[in-house]
Amino acid sequence: TELSEQLGQLDSDVRELNATTKEAVMELNDQQQRTERELQNTTTELKEELDKLDTAITELNATTRETLMEITDEQQRTQLELQNVTTELKGNIDMLATDVTKLNATIGEVVHVHVAILVALHQQRSSITLCFRLCMS
User: Fold this and answer.
1) Calculated CA dihedral for residues 79, 82, 83, 89, nearest 10 degrees
2) What Rg, from alpha-carbon coordinates, does the chain have?
3) Cα–chain-centroid distance for residue 77?
């Protein structure tokens, strides 16, 4: 009977252990399912965020390319405008140099004529003075 009691106690302990094990396994299964759902939800959220980031990066790249193209176009327009202004200024400088050369030549001619007039006036004065002296004597 003692052996029978021990067997009964062992049987009861095994049943209790089986029940506890089943309960623990069920809790672990529930916890694993919750963890898997949370992981799946988190993964879905992360994928959505990655998609948003990918879209934002794509839009930013497009905007950056567009802005760079606009900057390049503006730079080319500015460079062309600068070349045109530089060419125009060089032409104006050349015209001014030609005008200065002509003006110098004209001034030279005016001085030459002025000197000739002064010489002629001096000769006339000398002639008038001579006539006046002749007339007075």
Assistant:
1) -170
2) 57
3) 15
Q: How many residues does the chain have?
A: 137
Amino acid, res. 58: T
- The pLDDT tens digits for 88-100 are 999 999 999 999 9
What is the residue-wise DSSP string for 74-100?
Answer: HHHHHHHHHHHHHHHHHHHHHHHHHHH
Q: pTM for this one?
A: 0.52
Nearest to 77 by CA among 88, 85, 87: 85
Distance between CA atoms of residues 85 and 87, nearest Å: 5
Number of Cβ atoms within 10 Å of the Cβ of 41: 10
Q: Is 117 helix (H, G, I), strand (E, B) or coil?
A: helix
